[in-house]
Amino acid sequence: MAYLIITNGLDQGQLFELSAGPNVVGRDGEAAIQIALSAVSRQHACLNVLAETVTIQDLDSANGTFVNNTPLKQEVTLADGDLIKIADLELKFYARFSAVDSHSGTMELNNFRSTASIETLKARSILLRQLRELFYDAGFDEVETPTLSADTVVDRFLHPLKVEICGKPYWLQTSPEFGMKRLLASGMNSIFQVGRAFRDEEQGMLHNLEFTMVEWYRVGDTTEEAIQFLGKLATTLLPYNDYETITYREAFQNFLSVDPLEMGEQELMNAIASLEFEIPQNWRAMGKDDWLDLLLTEFIQPRLGIGKPCILSEYPSSQAALARIHPDNPLVAERFELFVDGIELANGYHELLDPDELHQRNLKTNALRQLDDRPALPVDSYLAEAMRYGLPDCCGVALGFDRLAMLALGKDSISEVLPFPFPRA
Question: Are 230 and 336 in contact (CB under 8 A)?
Answer without folding.
Answer: yes
